[in-house]
Amino acid sequence: MNDLTNSADIDYSCFPDDRGHFGIYGGRFVSETLIFALDELAEMYQRLKDDPGFQAEFDKDMAHYIGRPSPLYHAERWSQRVGGAQLYLKREDLNHTGAHKVNNTIGQALLAKYSGKKRIIAETGAGQHGVASATVAARLGLECEVFMGEEDVRRQSLNVYRMKLLGATVNEVQSGTRTLKDAMNEAMRDWVTNVDDTFYIIGTVAGPHPYPQLVRDFQSIIGREAREQCLAQIGRLPDVLVACVGGGSNAIGLFHPFLNDENVAMYGVEAGGEGVETGRHAAPLSDGIPGVLHGNRTYLMEDQNGQIIETHSISAGLDYPGVGPEHSWLKDLGRVNYVAVNDDEALAAFRELTLIEGIMPALESSHALAYAKKLAQSMSSDRSLVVNLSGRGDKDILTIAAMDGIKVS
Amino acid sequence: MTNRIDNTFSVLKEKNRKALITFVTVGDPSIEDTHKIMNLLVDAGVDIIELGIPFSDPIADGTTIQSASQRALANGTTLKSILSLVTRFRKNNKHTPIVLMGYYNPVFRHGIESFCSDATNAGVDGLIIVDLPPEEDSLLRTIANKDDLHLVRLVTPTTDEERLSIILDGATGFLYYVSINGITGMQVIDEKTIEERINFLRQKTDLPIAVGFGIKSSEDVRMIQKYADAAVVGSALVKKIEEIGEFHKEGELFNFVRDLSETHVP
């Protein structure tokens, strides 16, 4: 904890340490059976991450399969309406498969290819990571099984069907709260059982080391592009970055390349559900405590006995009681501000962006938009704010329609 | 006083016998029932009792122990109520070793120092924390050892020689060999593999070796005891408890455990 006082002196690119620690967070809390597989993965990643051949393959897929770079779009009409800072949207929704998740699955699928393993598994909440995993599996001819909580299967039926069309098996998880955390439990049980021939593609910056690091590195393409695009379009770095945080992969992807730029402020927006004060939310950084779950030490939502409690959010992708360990560290350091936005505010932002800019955001991203709006209103019009539009909202149409009392058949 | 685990293994060694270790989830179906079951296990010949601390997210467990954990949590079972159960059990039983087995978060939340001293005072002899590998266990291990609690290390089919030396460095009590890649309650243990792995471990350590995961019947126990110092029966017993629901002496559960323990003869 001795480095907590002087966050300005930290070189953020040097973390985690070689055992996966970000300060007191992260690490590797798993069954002994998985240690060799994690060692193997960490070793392979260290070897490949600076390998020009591997990087060239990744860059090629990013350009020609995903369609990167994703645009940085100046939402002028929305900015005017909001009245304040200029709002820029990093359009991860325009990626192939419709969200930022695919940046990471391309990277991990390449690792799977190099490892020679023929089967991949993945957990998913909103289904975006599941779809992105099924997509890369189809392209590489790998067997793919996706674990998804029964509750999320119901909420995100379109994505379930997409995964099936892509040839993946969707395993409906019926244990616990039947959402993302239980899907991750079940995926880890599968991995420990089939570790010899299975590659586990974790979808967020959580899990045991080296996952938080490698997912961050693959997602950091978002921030690297945004940095260049800001310099080209605005002529300087942005004043503020805003992204939603469930596990936190899109947020870390945007933030990480800017962490050493002291003058860029950052806001991670958690799911406030029915309101942080009600206890019915999914905001561990706003209202949680450090603990150990899914292989890492991080902020968690738990009761006084250390049992993980049920989370609540309109958005399946944010409905998770933990968060990536690097976010926990950045919170304690004060480098990133973590805030929460309620279901209602997110829904309002969804509708506003759809009507004013003709862009339908995912409910997850709508949390970031709602907070960005509040922030922008307190800033002058010569300031700029970049929001990560992490995914598109097509998958949420049935949820929205149900709220409007409309049955879409 | 020497630790009851060390004591039990040395007494059994003198008698040229092998140990039967059984696992039950505390609070399934209730704390009171667990108390009765613990006494029943001792009467039926169990040498070491593992008490499962229920956790909301038991990633190393199959459906049997997952369900037991959920029932136990629904009953309000907590680390505190588990420790007070051990205290009550110790009033009439001073010799049977008790090992608490579970996941790190409830222990971490309780506070490492107070947990270790509370556990020792209650009469606990060892801990198995399934999601706490050697890299992360130094804090707990240091404090536990000071309190004469063994922090039992696990070895798996994927453990190679280099890894084994890390695991053995600081291992106390006994070594827990997880017989399969997988979660609790799965089938299929292969005798030849067990024999090879135990022989390999024997060359590297003098600690007693217990084998768990996938051991369901008295035949399984007998086979394991040919090679290892102890056989651990978990899910099969938890399943019986779920099915039977009555825990008096001479009942079905007693007979099931008696059958397992009668395989003591080497």
TrEMBL record, chain A:
Cofactor needs: pyridoxal 5'-phosphate
- What are the UniProt keywords, alphabetically? Amino-acid biosynthesis, Aromatic amino acid biosynthesis, Lyase, Pyridoxal phosphate, Tryptophan biosynthesis
Pathway the protein takes part in: Amino-acid biosynthesis; L-tryptophan biosynthesis; L-tryptophan from chorismate: step 5/5
Superkingdom of origin:
Bacteria
Q: What is its EC number?
A: 4.2.1.20
User: What reaction does this catalyse?
Assistant: (1S,2R)-1-C-(indol-3-yl)glycerol 3-phosphate + L-serine = D-glyceraldehyde 3-phosphate + L-tryptophan + H2O
* Ranges of residues in domain Tryptophan synthase beta chain-like PALP: 67-391
Lyase found in the keyword field: yes
SUPFAM superfamilies from the entry?
A: Tryptophan synthase beta subunit-like PLP-dependent enzymes
CDD domains from the UniProt entry = Trp-synth_B
Q: Which residues carry this modification: N6-(pyridoxal phosphate)lysine?
A: 101
Entry's Gene Ontology molecular function annotations: tryptophan synthase activity
What is one GO cellular-component annotation here?
Answer: cytoplasm
The record's listing under Pfam families reads: PALP (PF00291)
Summarize subunit and interaction data from the UniProt record for this chain: Tetramer of two alpha and two beta chains.
Q: What family does the Swiss-Prot or TrEMBL record give for this protein?
A: Belongs to the TrpB family.
**HAMAP family cross-referenced by the UniProt entry:** Trp_synth_beta
What function is annotated for this protein? The beta subunit is responsible for the synthesis of L-tryptophan from indole and L-serine.
- Its recorded name reads Tryptophan synthase beta chain
Q: Give the species.
A: Candidatus Endobugula sertula (Bugula neritina bacterial symbiont)
Encoding gene (name): trpB
UniProtKB/TrEMBL annotation, chain B:
The record's annotation in Gene3D superfamilies points to: Aldolase class I
GO molecular function, one example? tryptophan synthase activity
User: Can you supply one Gene Ontology CC term for this chain's record?
Assistant: cytosol
- What UniProt keywords are attached to this protein's entry? Amino-acid biosynthesis, Aromatic amino acid biosynthesis, Lyase, Tryptophan biosynthesis
- In terms of superkingdom, the source organism counts as Bacteria
- Return the InterPro entries for the record: Aldolase_TIM (IPR013785), RibuloseP-bd_barrel (IPR011060), Trp_synthase_alpha_AS (IPR018204), Trp_synthase_suA (IPR002028)
Q: Give me the reactions it catalyses.
A: (1S,2R)-1-C-(indol-3-yl)glycerol 3-phosphate + L-serine = D-glyceraldehyde 3-phosphate + L-tryptophan + H2O
Q: Do you know which SUPFAM superfamilies this protein is assigned to?
A: Ribulose-phoshate binding barrel (SSF51366)
Q: What does this chain do?
A: The alpha subunit is responsible for the aldol cleavage of indoleglycerol phosphate to indole and glyceraldehyde 3-phosphate.
Xref: HAMAP family: Trp_synth_alpha
> How does this polypeptide assemble, per the annotation?
Tetramer of two alpha and two beta chains.
Protein name as it appears in the record:
Tryptophan synthase alpha chain
Q: State which gene encodes it.
A: trpA
